[in-house]
Specification:
Length: 245
Amino acid sequence: MNKPIRLGILTPSSNTALEPLISAMSAKMPDCSAHFSRFKVTEIALTNKALQQFDDSKILAAAELLADAKVDVIVWSGTAAGWMGFDSDQRLCDHIYQRTGTVATTAVLALNELLKIAGVKRLALVTPYTGDIQQRIVANYAREGIAVVAERHMQISVNHDFALVEPHTLRQLIREVSTHANNAQPQAISTYCTNLRAAPLADRMEVELGIPLLDTVSATFWGALRATGADPSQVQGWGSLFAMR
């Protein structure tokens, strides 16, 4: 009998999309379960109050609760490093390991690893965020040598409301960025927010557009499996990223 895989997932308190999606993905893996811990996040903005939501002390308290369940990995399934700097996620992972003894990763670190594996230098981005947040994300990827050649954002700042964006709206935005930017065709499209219901769209959109759709909820699950040594390619029906290794 195989040892069960227990995934510990840190999620914003106002997120309603992540848990059902991760649980559905977990059902594709034998003997795999996902366990969640929340900390307070309600607004995505560049104000001091909003940025302080991601203070490591609050995240570490939630991580310690997951460690009590003896999970195999702890994953921060949020995209704040996109605007706060990718090094913030690496520091967080180090702090989680120091505090709990459990290996850690994040949605953004997993996505960036996928971009590296796929050799992506031209990326399209779909987010629900405001323009100033989007600009920070674009600038941080530019520093990594990845040009965001097309983007759409929805000017929403209330975290709970991201999950209310309908799939047909997401499909339209994904189609728009696939052909935008003066014919500078993106090598991949990322739906960049872990409270969007975009992950189930990947298979059909990839067939329609011929471009990988790298959703950050899916990246969370891919990164969690990789960290445990499990084979993500066992996950079928959630897009091509699970075949990347």
